[in-house]
Amino acid sequence: MRLIVTGFEPFGGAEVNASWEAVRRLEGVEKVLLPVSFARAGGMVRELVAGAPDAVICVGEAGGRSSISVERVAVNLMDARIPDNDGARPVDGRIAPDGPAAYFATLPTRRIATRLREANIPAELSYTAGTYVCNAVFYALMDAVNRAGKPIPGGFIHVPAKGGVALFPIIIE
Ligand code: PCA
Description:
By secondary structure, this protein is an alpha/beta fold. It contains 5 helices and 8 strands, in the order βαβαββββαβαβα. It has a single domain, classed as CATH 3.40.630.20. The strands form 2 sheets. The chain has a 6-stranded mixed sheet with strand order 2-1-3-8-4-7, with helices on both faces. A two-stranded antiparallel sheet has the order 5-6.
């Protein structure tokens, strides 16, 4: 079983990113650090899918949230409030001009959220991953999975900026 889990480098002037702090502690999975870059991160995720892993979970940090968000929907929109780490700030942009408006995660999202709550970890299903780099990576992942024609489980999980590190490891059973 080849499970790839990605996390992000810091952005927005922060020194660490809780997603990578959580991911880099995992054992038994392939860990990939993604740049907070609209131009570069999507292509890296597409390459990971091209390597035909058994599953891909991308993880990002969500500053304002206090529980783990298991994301259900990626939208075909880039609308950045702050520049990414390359200095790009797309507004009203499409991620894939010829792609559908949205994709659903193919991970068992409800089961993941339920299992986390059973373990007394605050977790919820989320219906927006925002419109910044995390959503763009999630969309690129699901676009690649759908175009590959081989239904591999893929999805995105947001961890809180504070406490996310301690909460996350239990997701990987
Ligand atoms: N969070 C940002 C991008 C990278 C990250 O960890 C987001 O939610 O889009």
